[in-house]
Amino acid sequence: MSWQAYVDNLIGSGKVDKAALFSRAGDSVWATSANLNVTAPEIAALAHGFDDASPLQASGLHIQGQKFFLLRADDRSIYGKHQNEGVIAVRTKQALLLAHYPEGIQAGEATKVVEQLADYLISVNY
């Protein structure tokens, strides 16, 4: 399966409207949805946030120029919220998943599909 198929499957779940896969370090884009344009500094800050969340706690998480309030950050998952939408980022052994859910989708529903994909990638050593 291509990396793009994973992104397409996330969007096909109906729980996520934008998604991307990056290298674990955030320095290379493996696949992305057409409507997600994350800048290099935004993805670098996100990738660094898994190891040190203090900058994200201080100034928020920025995706596509939008500031998201940091809800959770640990060495596996980072969650952010802006009004009624949010972002989920999960780091696996080799990859970084990023997904955005729109207004009208419950955070838990979106989180479940993203975390399940991360679990699968981890199980196959990605």
Automatic annotation (TrEMBL):
A GO MF term: actin monomer binding
GO CC term (a single one): cytoskeleton
Chief location category: cytoplasm
Compartment(s) where it occurs, according to its Swiss-Prot or TrEMBL record: Cytoplasm, Cytoskeleton
Keywords for the protein's UniProt record, in alphabetical order: Actin-binding, Cytoplasm, Cytoskeleton
One Pfam family linked to the record: Profilin
SMART domains: PROF
SUPFAM superfamilies: Profilin (actin-binding protein)
Subunit structure, interactors included: Occurs in many kinds of cells as a complex with monomeric actin in a 1:1 ratio.
Family: Belongs to the profilin family.
PANTHER family: PROFILIN (PTHR11604)
Function, in words: Binds to actin and affects the structure of the cytoskeleton. At high concentrations, profilin prevents the polymerization of actin, whereas it enhances it at low concentrations.
Protein name stated in the entry: Profilin
